[in-house]
Amino acid sequence: MSDVERRFLHDGIKRTYEKALECEGWGDVDAAEDTYRKLNNAVKRDVVGNARDIGLTPFETQQIAKLTAMLSLRAKELRRGDDLGIGPDACRELREYMCAFLLDPKAEFPFDVAPEAVGERPVELQMEELAIASSSYDANDDRSPPDRWDSSGNGGGGHREPRFIPDGVKDGVGGAGGVNRTLTEREGGSLMPPPRLRERGDQALVTRILHFGCKDSGEFIDPFVTVTVVDGAGNLVEATQDTPVVNRRDVNKVLFDGVAVHAQTPLHELPDDAAVILEFKHYKPKKRKISTRGWSFFRLSDLDPDKESQTLALEIYAKPTDLRCRKFGLLSVKPLYFHVEAYVRTE
Questions:
Q1: Spans of biased composition, class Basic and acidic residues (predicted)?
Q2: Do 207 and 100 belong to one domain?
Q3: Fewer CB atoms near the end CB (10 Å): N or C, the chain?
């Protein structure tokens, strides 16, 4: 990747960072949490996910791993109201590092934050996986360069296809068939491809989103689902993922057409008390923010180990989301459910 291309990628991520600080300055907690989460997803998708093309050095990779860990913690603080030792002041102190992000290979992250603190893979493992991925490329590989940022700071580069189009998403637009155009970050989501399983017989969980039951399905703008894998204490096991937005509706339901969300952690590495949390979100133009309508969850222990695939009808709970899955009340007295399919993929 040329210096000009690095600068272009830097500018988009830097704008999102400044927007997150701006939302915090306004006291808009929901918007700040959403922007930090988008920033974290963008760094992982567009930088870490394209480390080979960008030419990240081992030192840069280590610093970026600390950045994504800190962004995860800050988003979690805003989401749950907990003090995890980050706070707005520390985020403002990142400005010098963010100004040098991708431009200076020697830029050092100012805080010592371990990725393991937010349930992410250690830096050494991330670098090992990058090396494995790089060695699997053919020397004459002519695939497209990594996704770009457009002038407004949104993901995508106009003339290139998205790096990863999930199952159940047609033409890059969730379940809609859609038109062939550049997607905004919210439209495109932040789903990850299937993880690389190391050993034959290893298994990974795939959650296919079928539909969200609601009595006012036509009123939601740009609905999508955020999927989070947590342990019994509510700690994130891996990074959250957002589905692309959808625009298909039916009576009392928003349709997601089985879009696939791939858990990045192999099943045997997930804690016994792990749970998958699904939050149905939508955009409120008057408030200019993302809002959670309702949430559901299922535990790994709820799944039948003898079945490769099973469909679940999950109760829908009113916000706020409890990552520990202990405090919840039904969103509606009507028999409406969040329908998903849990599928176990075996290497």
A1: 140-150, 158-170
A2: no
A3: C
